């Protein structure tokens, strides 16, 4: 992974910079190399680089003070929520100060009548729902890492989850943020209903991968919890049939809260790992619906009638809490199961659901060509694929081959009318593939937004855009300094 | 000027030497807008792609909203964000205005249904952003930035939208005895329970109105549960139809006065209503207040957490005055996407900071 060379001037001023930071935010600065090592990577752990220093502020004012210093000293800054990015979104460079949100986890306001909660951005996704669960509410976006991942990171990456077919992703559930710009200015974006006068700045900040500012607080839409939920498991003897069944359900006007897909390699691995009792078949769907018991029955009757038209090898309807848990068990342990048998790389290209059979066939062909197995588990309702490429990290050349196969699969997704990433973000991982999806002018339009928020390109700068494409801006700013 | 293709539009914008007013049907203009040379986008029409099984529609921006609604209805689908019908209204205009109706409380705004777009900047560059898939975090979300930007950053040429199944059944409950402020607690009770409410409004003479939609059995269950939940607020009736909740603009000038759109937290609405003349409508559980004021008058409002915009009348005005940093970011973005100020769709008022003066 190529990263820009660290700024020698910044490295030389390390002691002076950390001293200024310490003075501004006492007790919040880490610069001992043994300790900064803990921040050398995120969940894209193949790539590591310890930062210059780490600051763990407690308040918006402290974040602003840190950014004012870094801005004045022209020090690159990398924002970090919980470090669970799969795309290297919070991977540092040697000349960067990591601003971590770990100490900012307070609930600032809970307003059930107006259906929102305001939290500090370091609070974990799951604990947002936890804070309102007793009152009968929940926060809908549910990325797989929800136990660990921070709301600030969710906003940065516009995180999704298994239930976005019905509830949308972060941007659809975000009402406002407090944003600190690289210059240390504090702005409030959004408002009631998520809107403010003028341009939708909240909308473009969400998903900007920490390149426009550091989100320190967020107002989130909370929803009344449904009366209940129940999954069914449907097995098929061909992936194409499973895909056709998904299309038929949606076409019939039924919108389940989740439709998850697993193929045979994935079913076998999870079965060996978790023993969820899945049928041994080519493909299975987990379809979940919500409501009161009669409402659930009504939806499942329709889903069963549609599924039977596709001759399923199994249709298993949960009859109890325990059966529901077992149906979800395999899906939820899929990544762990794959990790047990192999190193793997998880992609998240998204495709039009109609292109599913064609893309699955293409992945199988590429898998053969590269000699690496690929297991598929994904959110079928919204076309968000998660092909897992299995490789051996200890085998020289295997990681590179895996990355090359991953790039081919993502190009296949784009060619089918889809995109490189549905919910993980571009980060450093998919940066160089951006020209497969966008023209240089398309990317320039996006970079103009960064020019406005961070004219010196100091904030998480070597991400999202191909290095060569962002170089004139990054280097121009540095040379102008 | 009436371009028939995106390339023609880009040429026209590049060649322009005076401010243009990009218009679809021109049915959603705000005060001060539309004063430039008319750039008529109504010939940029056509469905590029419609895949009902993927809930995806891609259309050119000048396509009439009415045509799209007919097309979707034939497949048992709809635009979930429920844009109000207006004569001549085009999908590009709807997207540029982020026009969203009552179902926003359940299904989100227009911007939430927008999957991708193509647009032409003030320099005549053609830009694509987003795509046609439901989940997409590839690069910055310029779709949201352009949605509701009222043509100030670029002229939309194509919009990709998420469609939704039309609900099989609908029930509308009414509490006709409630005044505007009294309606807020009833609407809040409906929206904070597990009823999946798809409309929560108030109209003069009709009282509080609450809508549930879905499969027949489910609607019956939720209607019964809601009727019980709302009984304490007053007599609950059922009415056949969900009314139009977005007040329509009148002639210019309008003897009835200027129309104002006020966004607030529902819990703030009673205090705002107490300071105002009777509203024309409430929507989104009270988070949206529609108000008519004498021409040129501004509402006297206590400090609150939302904003108010004059949407008809002579002079643009938005309250409170925008934060200076936010105003600077707005102005800089316009400068980056339209450095020659060709897309001055708000006439001489080039900067948002001036809009409030």
UniProtKB/TrEMBL annotation, chain A:
> Which ranges carry the FAD-binding PCMH-type domain?
47-225
Matching entries from InterPro entries are given as: FAD-bd_oxidored_4_C, FAD-bd_PCMH, FAD-bd_PCMH-like_sf, FAD-bd_PCMH_sub2, FAD-linked_Oxase-like_C, FAD-linked_OxidoTrans_Type4, Oxid_FAD_bind_N, Vanillyl_alc_oxidase_C-sub2
User: Could you say which cofactors this protein requires?
Assistant: FAD
* Record has Oxidoreductase as a keyword: yes
User: MF terms per GO, please?
Assistant: FAD binding; oxidoreductase activity
Q: What PROSITE patterns does UniProt report for this protein, alphabetically?
A: FAD_PCMH (PS51387)
Under Pfam families, the record lists: FAD-oxidase_C, FAD_binding_4
Q: Does this UniProt record's set of keywords contain Oxidoreductase? A: yes
**Gene3D superfamilies assigned to the protein according to its UniProt record, in alphabetical order:** 3.30.465.10, 3.30.70.2740, Vanillyl-alcohol Oxidase, Chain A, domain 4 (1.10.45.10)
Q: Could you name the domain of life of the organism this protein comes from?
A: Bacteria
Q: Which PANTHER family match?
A: GLYCOLATE OXIDASE SUBUNIT GLCD
Its name, as the record gives it, is FAD-binding protein
| Record organism | Paracoccus limosus
Q: What is the lineage of its organism?
A: Bacteria, Pseudomonadati, Pseudomonadota, Alphaproteobacteria, Rhodobacterales
Automatic annotation (TrEMBL), chain B:
Gene3D superfamilies in the record, alphabetically? 3.30.465.10
Per UniProt, the keywords (alphabetical) are: FAD, Flavoprotein
InterPro entries referenced in this protein's UniProt entry, alphabetically: FAD-bd_PCMH (IPR016166), FAD-bd_PCMH-like_sf (IPR036318), FAD-bd_PCMH_sub2 (IPR016169), FAD-linked_Oxase-like_C (IPR016164), Oxid_FAD_bind_N (IPR006094)
Extract the GO molecular function terms from the UniProt entry.
catalytic activity; FAD binding
Q: What's the superkingdom here?
A: Bacteria
- Domain FAD-binding PCMH-type residue range list: 1-166
Q: Which PROSITE patterns match?
A: FAD_PCMH
Under PANTHER family, the record lists:
D-LACTATE DEHYDROGENASE (PTHR11748), GLYCOLATE OXIDASE SUBUNIT GLCE (PTHR11748:SF103)
The protein in question is named FAD-binding protein
Report the source organism: Paracoccus limosus
């Amino acid at each position: 992974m190529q990263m820009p060379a660290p700024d020698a001037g910044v490295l030389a001023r390390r002691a002076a910079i950390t001293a200024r930071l310490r003075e501004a935010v006492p007790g919040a600065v880490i610069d001992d190399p043994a300790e900064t090592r803990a921040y050398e990577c995120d969940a894209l752990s193949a790539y590591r680089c310890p930062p210059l220093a780490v600051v763990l502020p407690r308040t918006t004012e402290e974040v602003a003070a840190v950014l004012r210093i870094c801005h004045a000293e022209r020090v690159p800054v990398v924002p970090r929520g919980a470090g669970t990015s799969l795309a290297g979104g919070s991977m540092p460079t040697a000349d960067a100060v990591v601003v971590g949100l770990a100490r900012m986890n307070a609930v600032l306001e809970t307003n059930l009548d107006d259906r929102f909660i305001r939290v500090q951005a370091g609070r974990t996704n799951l604990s947002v729902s936890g804070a309102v669960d007793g009152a009968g509410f929940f926060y809908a976006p549910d990325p797989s890492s929800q136990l660990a991942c921070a709301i600030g990171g969710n906003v940065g990456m516009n995180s999704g989850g298994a239930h976005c077919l019905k509830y949308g992703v972060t941007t659809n559930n975000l009402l406002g943020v407090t944003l600190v710009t690289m210059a240390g200015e504090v702005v409030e974006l959004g408002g009631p209903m998520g809107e403010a006068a003028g341009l939708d700045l909240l909308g473009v900040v969400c998903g900007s991968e920490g390149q426009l500012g550091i989100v320190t607080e967020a107002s989130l839409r909370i929803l009344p919890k449904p009366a209940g939920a129940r999954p069914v498991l449907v097995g098929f003897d061909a992936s194409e049939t499973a895909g056709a069944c998904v299309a038929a359900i949606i076409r019939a006007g039924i919108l389940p809260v989740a439709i998850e897909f697993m193929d045979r390699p994935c079913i076998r691995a999870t079965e060996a790992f978790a023993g969820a009792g899945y049928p041994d078949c080519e493909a299975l769907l987990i379809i979940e619906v919500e409501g009161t018991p009669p409402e659930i029955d009504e939806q499942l009757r329709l889903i069963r009638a549609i599924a039977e038209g596709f001759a399923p090898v199994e249709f298993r309807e949960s009859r109890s809490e325990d059966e529901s848990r077992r149906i979800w068990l395999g899906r939820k342990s899929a990544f762990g199961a794959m990790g047990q048998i192999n190193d793997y790389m998880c992609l998240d290209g998204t495709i039009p659901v109609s292109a599913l059979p064609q893309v699955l066939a293409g992945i199988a062909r590429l898998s053969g060509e590269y000699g690496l197995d690929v297991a598929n588990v994904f959110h079928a309702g919204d076309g968000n694929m998660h092909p897992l490429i299995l490789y051996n990290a200890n085998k020289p050349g295997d990681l590179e081959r895996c990355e090359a196969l991953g790039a081919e699969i993502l190009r296949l997704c784009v060619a089918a009318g889809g995109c490189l990433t549905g919910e993980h973000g571009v980060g450093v991982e998919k940066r160089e593939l951006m020209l497969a999806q966008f023209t240089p002018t398309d990317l320039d339009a996006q970079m103009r937004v960064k020019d406005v928020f961070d004219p010196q390109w100091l904030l998480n700068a070597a991400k999202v855009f191909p290095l060569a494409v962002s170089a004139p801006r990054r280097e121009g700013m540095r040379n102008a300094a | 000027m009436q371009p028939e293709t995106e390339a023609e539009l880009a040429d026209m914008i590049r060649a322009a030497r005076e401010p243009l007013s990009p218009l679809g049907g021109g049915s959603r203009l705000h005060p001060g807008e539309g004063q430039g040379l008319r750039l008529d986008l109504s010939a940029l029409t056509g469905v590029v792609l419609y895949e009902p099984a993927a809930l995806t529609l891609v259309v050119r921006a000048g396509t009439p909203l009415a045509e799209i609604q007919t097309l979707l209805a034939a497949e048992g689908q709809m635009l979930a964000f429920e844009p109000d019908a207006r004569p001549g209204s085009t999908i590009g205009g709807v997207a540029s205005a982020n026009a969203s109706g009552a179902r926003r409380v359940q299904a989100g705004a227009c911007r939430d249904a927008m999957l991708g777009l193509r647009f032409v900047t003030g320099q005549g560059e053609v830009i694509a952003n987003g795509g046609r898939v439901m989940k997409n975090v590839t690069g910055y979300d310029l779709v949201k930035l352009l949605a509701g930007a009222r043509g100030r950053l670029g002229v939309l040429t194509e919009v990709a939208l998420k469609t939704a199944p039309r609900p099989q059944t609908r029930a509308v409950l009414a509490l006709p005895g409630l005044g505007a402020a009294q309606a807020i607690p009833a609407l809040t009770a409906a929206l904070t329970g597990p009823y999946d409410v798809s409309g929560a409004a108030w109209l003069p003479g009709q009282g509080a109105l609450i809508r549930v939609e879905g499969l027949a059995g489910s609607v019956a269950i939720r209607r019964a549960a809601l009727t019980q939940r709302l009984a304490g607020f007053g007599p609950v009736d059922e009415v056949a139809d969900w009314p139009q909740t977005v007040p329509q603009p009148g002639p210019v000038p309008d003897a009835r006065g200027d129309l104002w759109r006020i966004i607030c937290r529902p819990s703030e609405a009673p205090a705002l209503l107490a300071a105002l003349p009777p509203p024309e409508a409430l929507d989104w559980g009270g988070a949206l207040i529609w108000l008519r004021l004498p021409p040129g008058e501004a509402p006297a409002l206590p400090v609150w957490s939302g904003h108010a915009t004059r949407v008809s009348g002579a002079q643009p005005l938005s309250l409170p005055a925008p934060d200076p940093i936010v105003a600077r970011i707005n102005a800089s973005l316009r400068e980056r996407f339209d450095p020659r100020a060709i897309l001055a769709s708000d006439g001489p008022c080039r900067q948002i900071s001036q809009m409030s003066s």
